[in-house]
Design brief:
The complex is a heterodimer of chains A (507) and B (262).
Chain A lengths: L3 H30 L3 H16 L2 H22 L9 H25 L3 H9 L4 H31 L12 H9 L3 H30 L3 H24 L5 E4 L4 H16 L4 E4 L4 H9 L5 E5 H8 L8 H14 L3 E9 L2 E6 H6 L5 H4 L7 E4 L7 H10 L5 E4 L2 H9 L5 E5 L4 H4 L2 E3 L11 E6 L7 H7 L8 H11 L8 H13 L2
Parallel strand pairs in A: 1-2, 6-7, 6-8
Antiparallel strand pairs in A: 3-10, 4-10, 5-8, 5-9
Helix pairs in contact in A: 1-4, 1-6, 1-9, 2-4, 3-4, 4-6, 5-6, 6-8, 7-8, 8-9, 10-21, 20-21
Chain B lengths: L6 E10 L4 E11 L4 E5 L6 H8 L7 E6 L2 E2 L5 H6 L1 E4 L11 H5 L1 H5 L4 H14 L4 H4 L9 H13 L5 E5 L7 H17 L3 E6 L2 H7 L2 E6 L2 E6 L1 H5 L4 H20 L7
The chains are: A alpha/beta (507), B alpha/beta (262).
Chain lengths: 507, 262
């Protein structure tokens, strides 16, 4: 709850900027296109296509696009910009806002009675005067309806900008989804809905004032919007800028570890903030470009996804190679935390014992009658291909699931096997067992701390983090993850991180 | 030396759709200063096109049009329109502007000071016989058809033009309102020394209001002259147009007692 001013402020900043940019582009385009049928059709078609792209995908697409653009400007023009957070969010949302504004402005303008247009010409108006004195005022109600629709869409969709690094009310939703804290999810949705309604009503007030030529109502609405913006800018200006930004991906363990790192930095009197809920495609690039300073990744993930290796090496060799590869990008592989969060095939302990399955190899003969579930990426990852090849597994059915629901699904028998994570607290909670990977088809997934290029030689920073290295074992991490999936105050990432530090700090 | 006509059409032609539709075909017509000319014709006769050529709402293909002695093709059309009053069919008022806003629009475009515009609006409301206090701040949709057309006339006169063009101004009104408005305008025309060209499809209205009547048919000017001149025309179409008012007059004469105190 203490985050509300920050989240809400960021949300309003990104929404208002996106809407303003969207209007700045759409309104002139609509005016130019209103008497040009070909351009009009093309614009509306394009805007409709943009609208069919899911908001999350559109936002995610802007990140690599801007990253490439930033690299180009750095190479050619000698300056670079951050492709992280605010900018991609504003651009994607602005694009998203265009359809209703374009469509309603064109509809509104072309709905003006031709007799009135003729009169405007007849009394001696220039085309520009006709536009500003007659056409726009008459089209205003329809245009405002479009602007209100766009505002509501943008404010709603802005919750999806969390994974590309833009703080928003979506932070509540994403954090809540990952830690199964439904109060958080509902609160995030509720706050975004209230904000959307307030902005919509303020715009309605302005529209009403303009229509009835009530200066008071127009001014009140305008003041309301201005006050909203001002109120949101104040905390941004007043808030001291944290020097260190700790990144976290979108799952519970990452929320806990980022909180732990931030607490360690603060304990060493280094100001730190967390940027949680980043997409796994975004977070590495964000570190490389210095938008975040530190985060925890997993050796096998980087090996397979970031560097596209398909072979599997023994863990020490893999870590060594990874360290060398990362060093080429000036990224420091600072060290391992001490546990692994690997993929593992997981079954209920009771069921596995009954039919005598203890390792992945034991599954081979039975797989054809069994179903398997994995997270959204597992079946397209090289590990899955590796497992299938090494053990000759073919399952009757495979399903994709939200990770948090997989464990309950396998415990209840809805699926027979899941591709779970070894550090997940739910393995203990549901009395599940991880099957041994005797043939080493699954690469090692040591949790490793990565530092951004600009922190390579930051000794104070490194000194604050060093006590974490090698301290956290798999049992402790599992318990921390289990604690963090609760719904009470003691299950917030901060509280769990403090608990974890008490447990491991004295080692 | 005869005075130069205020509006002079000389061999003017206009066609649409790449020449497939000839709207105005070689028309020559002079309108003298202070004259009230009615142009009569059916739909598609080219009468509206002819009117719009004068203030360049439509550009002529051929011929020459002079207004106050100047070739209109050499005048900025925006400035030309601001100095010619134009009354649209059924008003053509701006629905989002008040009566005062509508009437004051051309002076505003010409950059008159606000106080002057305001005074002129009041003057015009008196002139078209609308109550200042009652009508000034109303929106067009709150007015009757007759009131709207009075506002339309006031708007046309606002910037003190010498010329007023009227496109079927009274066509959509009920007969009583139409009569009253026609008479009122006729008075204004005389008192203000205006030169008026009015388009109508109604020959009776044309004969009753205008000094001179021009008859258009199929883009051509068939005849022009005073009611008496037209009566004497040998053209079959003109004769047909003249028959209706004549028959109406005869039948009314027979039906209504001559000595009746109406």
């Amino acid at each position: 709850m203490s985050h509300l001013p920050d989240y809400l402020g960021s949300h309003v900043r990104v929404s208002v900027s996106a809407l303003a940019l969207g209007l700045l582009i759409s309104l002139p385009l609509a005016i130019v296109a209103r008497n040009r049928p070909v351009l009009r059709t093309a614009l509306l078609g394009l805007a409709s296509i943009v609208q069919t792209v899911p908001g999350l995908a559109l936002l995610a697409l802007f990140y690599p696009l801007l990253l490439a653009l930033a690299a180009l400007t750095a190479a050619w023009l000698g300056f670079s910009f951050s492709a992280f957070g605010f900018l991609p969010a504003v651009l994607a949302l602005a694009l998203y806002s265009m359809l209703p504004v374009l469509r309603n402005t064109i509809t509104g303008l072309s709905g003006v009675d031709p007799a009135v247009l003729e009169a405007a010409e007849g009394v001696g108006m220039t085309p520009r005067q006709s536009l500003t004195m007659v056409e726009l005022p008459l089209a205003l109600p329809v245009m405002m309806a479009g602007i209100r629709t766009a505002a509501v869409w943008v404010i709603g969709t802005a919750t999806l900008s969390t994974p590309i690094g833009q703080t928003s009310l979506g932070n509540y939703i994403f954090a809540g989804l990952q830690t199964q804290n439904w109060v958080f999810v509902l609160f995030g949705c509720f706050a975004a809905a209230v904000l959307a309604l307030v902005v919509d009503q303020l715009l309605a007030l302005i529209e009403n004032g303009l229509r009835n030529r009530s200066r008071i109502r127009t001014a009140l609405g305008g003041l309301g919007i201005a006050a909203l913006i001002a109120a949101m800018l104040v905390p941004a200006i007043a808030r001291p800028h944290a020097r260190y930004v700790v990144g976290a991906k979108t799952f519970t363990e990452q929320y806990v570890l980022s909180a732990l790192i931030a607490q360690r930095l603060q304990a060493a009197e280094l100001s730190a903030t967390t940027r949680a809920g980043l997409g796994s495609n975004v977070i590495f690039d964000a570190l490389a470009s210095g938008d975040i300073d530190v985060y925890v990744d997993y050796s096998g993930t980087l090996w397979a996804n970031q560097f596209h290796h398909t072979d599997i090496r023994p863990r020490a060799e893999l870590l060594g190679e990874l360290k060398a590869t990362l060093a080429k990008q000036n990224i420091t592989l600072f060290g391992e935390l001490g546990f692994e969060n690997a993929y593992a095939l997981v079954m209920p302990r009771k069921g596995a014992d009954e039919i005598g399955i203890h390792s992945v190899a034991d599954l081979a003969s039975r797989a054809a009658t069994m179903s398997i579930a994995g997270d959204y990426e597992f079946f397209s990852r090289p590990e899955w291909a590796g497992i299938q090849k090494a053990y000759g597994l073919t399952f009757r059915a495979q399903r994709q699931m939200q990770p948090d629901f997989m464990y309950a699904a396998v415990a209840s028998g809805e699926v027979d096997v899941i591709a779970g994570y070894t550090s997940d607290g739910l393995i203990a909670k549901y009395d599940l067992v991880t099957l041994a990977d005797d043939r080493h088809a699954i690469p090692p997934y040591d949790a490793i701390v990565l530092l951004s290029p600009k922190r390579r030689d930051d000794e104070a920073f490194k000194a604050a983090l060093r006590p974490l290295l090698g301290r956290i074992d798999i049992a402790e991490m599992r318990e921390a993850n289990l604690r963090a999936s609760g719904n009470d105050a003691s299950s917030s990432p901060d509280a769990v991180a403090r608990w974890l530090w008490e447990k491991v700090g004295g080692k | 030396m005869p005075a130069t006509p205020l509006i002079a059409y000389a061999h003017v032609g206009k066609s649409f759709d790449d020449g497939r539709v000839v709207a105005v075909d070689d028309v020559s017509l002079d309108v003298a200063e202070g004259e009230f000319l009615a142009v009569v014709g059916g739909s598609g006769s080219g009468k509206t096109t002819l009117l719009r050529l004068a203030n360049r709402l439509i550009e002529a293909d051929r011929g020459r049009i002079a207004v106050e002695g100047e070739d209109v093709s050499r005048i900025d059309p925006i400035l030309l329109r601001r100095r010619i009053g134009y009354v649209f069919q059924s008003g053509g008022l701006f629905p989002h502007l008040t009566v005062a806003g509508n009437i004051g629009i051309t002076p505003k475009l010409l950059g008159w000071p606000q106080a002057e515009i305001s005074a002129r609006v009041d003057e015009l409301l008196d002139l078209v016989r609308l109550d200042r206090a009652q009508h000034r701040d109303r929106l067009p949709h709150e007015l009757s058809g007759g009131q709207r057309q009075r506002v339309g006339v006031a708007r046309a006169l606002a910037a003190k033009p010498r010329i007023v063009l009227m496109d079927e101004p009274f066509g959509a009104l009920d007969p009583l309102t139409r009569d009253a408005l026609g008479d009122d305008y006729r008075t204004l025309h005389r008192e203000l020394g205006l030169t008026t060209v009015m388009i109508t499809h109604d020959m009776t209205e044309a004969l009753l209001l205008a000094d001179r009547v021009a008859v258009m048919h199929g883009g051509r000017l068939l005849a022009q002259g005073t009611p008496a001149d037209l009566s004497a025309s040998t053209d079959a179409y003109v004769g047909e147009l003249m028959r209706t008012p004549r028959r109406q007059a005869e039948r009314l004469g027979a039906l209504l007692p001559r000595d009746g105190a109406a």
